[in-house]
Specification:
With 518 residues, the protein is α/β, with parallel strands linked by helices. The protein has helices spanning 41-58, 61-77, 79-90, 94-118, 162-174, 188-199, 234-241, 244-247, 274-288, 308-320, 340-354, 394-397, 414-422, 437-447, 508-514, and strands at 2-4, 6-8, 11-13, 20-23, 30-34, 124-131, 138-146, 151-154, 178-181, 208-210, 227-231, 252-256, 261-265, 298-304, 358-361, 382-385, 404-410, 427-433, 451-457, 476-477, 488-489, 499-507. It has a seven-stranded mixed beta sheet with strand order 15-16-17-14-13-18-19, sandwiched between helices. The protein has a five-stranded parallel beta sheet with strand order 10-9-8-11-12, sandwiched between helices. It has a three-stranded mixed beta sheet with strand order 1-5-4, with no helix packed on it. The chain binds NADP nicotinamide-adenine-dinucleotide phosphate.
Length: 518
C-alpha cells in the first residue's frame, strides 16, 4: 500500500511505526498509510525558518505573487488527477471535488492578483500616516513586516486542497514559509499537491513543507515569531491553545472552529418568489454539498411561523431528489461522510437533535446507497423541525458536521431573528433573505456582532448571488465565539496574521522611504 511521506528539511521522509490508514469512505477500501513517527520536527521548523523564510523575505510582493500564480497553474494542470483522488479519499462527488480543488487554484490566483497591486515592495502600509509634531516633518506611519518565523497550517479533513491553498496564499505572500499539516484521514490530495509543487520547483527551498500523519510534538517547537493557523474542531483548538508555545512563548494563533451557521427568511418573502427559490436552493446546496461537511454550511433555518409548512414542503421535495451513493457515479448527488468516526459522530448528533425536534426527512439510520452495497459511511440528508426554540436546544449548541439542518419558526421580527442567531454562540456566516430594507438592516446589524460574514439574498442579486457557504478570498473567513475568534482571507487582511504591525515615527521622508511610499 502507498505510504504518504512528509516533506521536511528539503526531502521526503517516511515515518516509522504507528500509522493512520486512509480509506475510500464509499467502499472502505484502504488506500494509503501516513506516519510521522521519528520525524524531527524541530529540525524541520528550523530549516523552514532559515532557508524558506530568508528566501521569501528577499522576494518582493510581486515576485511572491508570481510564485502563487505558478502554484495555481501547476495545481490546475493536474486538476483531473486531483479530482479523482478527492473522489476516492474524500467521498466527494466530482462537483464537491471541484469546489475544493478549484477553490485552491482560485484563491492562489486571487492572491497573485493582489500581489501585482502591492508591486515591487517588501513592506505593507497600514492606513494613512499622521502628522505628530508641530510641523509636517514629524510623522507616524503603521506598516506590516513579515514575521521571521514559520507558519504551521493544521487543517480539517474536509478541504484538503482549498485548506492548503487559502492559508498558504496569505502566508507566502506575506513572506513566511509554510508547514502544512492536513488532517491525516484525507491527506491524499494535499500530499499529491505538495508532490506537484516540489517536483516543479516552484517555491524556494524550505518555503513549503508537508506533514502527513500525526502532528506529534510539532507545535512544541513554535516560538514568538511563529504562527499556528488551525482549522478543526473547537475541542482540538482548546487543547492546542493551551500549549506552552502559546501560553508562554506568545506564538501567534488563529482558530477556525465549529459554527452553527444560520439562514433567516424575511416575513415579506412569498412562496414561489425568486428570493424563496434562492433561500431553498442555498439550504439544499449546503446540506448536500460535500455531504454537509462544510464549516460554512447552514445548520439552522429561521422561518416566520406562517411560512414554515411551505418551506418544509419545498425542502422536503428537493432533498427527496438527492441520490446518495458512490460519489464516482455521475447520477449520484451526495457521497458518504469522510470517515467512520464522522459517521458515528453524525449519527449521534442527529439523535441529539431529534431529542428537541421532529424529523421531517432522513435520520441516523442506515442508507441504501447507490452502487456500493452495504459498505461505506453513508447518511441520509436529514431535515428537522423544532417547534419551541430554546437557547439550550441541541440545534443551538451542537454542530452536526454532516447533511443536517433544523428549521425553527420565529415571529417574523428582525430582533427575534437576531436573538435566535446569537444563541449559536458565534458563527462563520449567516444569511438573510428579504427585499424589505428595514427588516434586512435590523436583522443584519443584529446578527453582525455574532458573525464573521453576513450574506443578503434579495431579488436584485438573486440571479448572481454567491451562496453563503462559498468562502471568497476577497472577504473575511472566520467568526467570533464558537467559530474560534479567527480571521482568514479578506484580501490583504489575511496577511496580517503572518506579519508584525509596527508603528514608525520620525522624519516623514525617512519613514515614507522605509514604508516604500517614496
Ligand atoms: P479535528 O479532529 O479537530 O482535526 C483537525 C486537525 O487537527 C487535523 O489535521 C488533526 O490531525 C489535527 N490535530 C488533532 N489533534 C491534534 C493535536 N493534538 N496536535 C496537533 N494537531 C492535531 O477536526 P476535523 O474532524 O478534521 O474537522 C471537523 C471540524 O472542523 C468540524 O468541527 C468543523 O466545524 C471544523 N471546521 C472548521 C472550519 C472553519 O473554517 N471554521 C473549516 C472546516 C472544518 P489528524 O487528522 O492527524 O488527527
Amino acid at each position: 500500500m502507498m505510504e504518504l511521506a512528509s516533506y521536511v528539511s528539503g526531502r521526503w521522509v517516511s515515518g516509522k511505526g504507528r500509522a493512520t490508514t486512509l480509506v475510500n469512505p464509499a467502499t472502505e477500501e484502504a488506500l494509503a498509510t501516513a506516519s510521522t513517527e521519528g520525524v524531527d520536527f524541530g529540525a524541520a521548523l528550523a530549516f523552514a525558518r532559515e532557508r524558506g523564510g530568508v528566501a521569501l523575505r528577499a522576494m518582493s510582493f510581486r515576485q511572491r505573487g508570481e510564485m502563487l500564480r505558478a502554484m495555481s497553474r501547476a495545481i490546475h494542470a493536474r486538476r483531473d488527477e486531483l479530482l479523482a483522488l478527492a473522489i476516492a479519499n474524500g467521498g466527494n462527488t466530482r462537483s464537491d471535488a471541484k469546489f475544493d480543488v478549484d477553490g485552491a487554484t482560485g484563491t492562489l490566483a486571487a492572491y497573485a492578483d493582489l500581489a501585482q497591486e502591492l508591486g515591487d515592495t517588501h513592506v505593507l502600509v497600514d492606513g494613512d500616516g499622521v502628522q505628530l509634531g508641530r510641523s509636517a516633518r514629524l510623522f507616524g506611519q503603521h506598516v506590516y513586516v513579515p514575521r521571521e518565523g514559520v507558519a504551521v497550517h493544521v487543517n480539517a479533513f474536509n478541504f484538503p486542497a482549498w485548506g492548503l491553498g487559502e492559508k498558504a496564499a496569505c502566508a507566502l505572500l506575506a513572506g513566511v514559509p509554510v508547514v502544512a499539516k492536513p488532517a491525516s484521514a484525507t491527506a491524499l490530495v494535499t500530499h499529491r499537491i505538495a508532490q506537484i509543487l516540489v517536483g516543479e520547483r516552484i517555491l524556494p527551498e524550505g518555503a513549503l513543507s508537508l506533514v502527513c500523519g500525526s502532528a506529534g510534538d510539532l507545535l512544541d517547537h513554535l516560538g514568538g515569531q511563529d504562527v499556528l493557523a488551525f482549522t478543526g474542531s473547537s475541542a482540538t483548538a482548546a487543547l492546542l491553545r493551551s500549549g506552552r508555545a502559546f501560553t508562554h512563548a506568545s506564538a501567534h494563533v488563529n482558530v477556525e472552529a465549529d459554527s452553527l451557521n444560520a439562514a433567516v427568511l424575511g416575513p415579506d418573502v412569498d412562496d414561489g418568489s425568486e428570493v424563496m427559490n434562492l433561500f431553498v436552493g442555498d439550504i439544499v446546496r449546503d446540506m448536500t454539498q460535500k455531504t454537509g461537511q462544510k464549516c460554512t454550511a447552514i445548520r439552522r433555518v429561521y422561518v416566520p411561523a406562517g411560512k414554515v409548512e411551505a418551506v418544509l414542503e419545498r425542502l422536503g421535495e428537493r432533498l427527496a431528489g438527492v441520490k446518495v451513493g458512490d460519489p464516482s457515479r455521475e447520477d449520484v448527488g451526495m457521497g458518504p461522510v469522510a470517515t467512520r468516526q464522522q459517521l458515528e459522530d453524525v449519527r449521534a448528533g442527529i439523535a441529539r437533535l431529534q431529542a428537541g425536534a421532529r424529523t421531517v426527512c432522513g435520520g441516523p439510520g442506515a442508507v441504501d446507497a447507490l452502487g456500493v452495497g452495504t459498505k461505506g459511511y453513508f447518511v441520509a440528508p436529514t431535515l428537522l423541525r423544532s417547534s419551541e426554540p430554546r437557547p439550550d436546544d441541541a440545534a443551538h449548541q451542537h454542530e452536526v458536521f454532516g447533511p443536517v439542518a433544523t428549521v425553527v419558526p420565529y415571529d417574523g421580527a428582525a430582533a427575534t431573528a437576531a436573538k435566535l442567531v446569537a444563541w449559536g454562540g458565534g458563527g462563520l456566516v449567516s444569511s438573510v433573505y428579504s427585499d424589505d430594507k428595514d427588516f434586512v438592516r435590523d436583522a443584519v446589524l443584529g446578527i453582525a456582532p455574532h458573525s464573521g460574514r453576513v450574506t443578503i439574498g434579495s431579488s436584485k442579486v438573486a440571479a448572481q448571488a454567491i451562496p453563503p457557504g462559498t468562502v471568497m478570498p476577497q472577504l473575511l473567513h472566520g467568526g467570533p465565539g464558537r467559530a474560534g475568534g479567527g480571521e482568514e482571507l479578506g484580501a490583504r487582511r489575511g496577511m496580517a496574521l503572518y506579519m508584525q504591525r509596527v508603528a514608525l515615527q520620525g522624519d516623514r521622508a525617512l519613514v515614507e522611504a522605509i514604508a516604500g511610499k517614496r
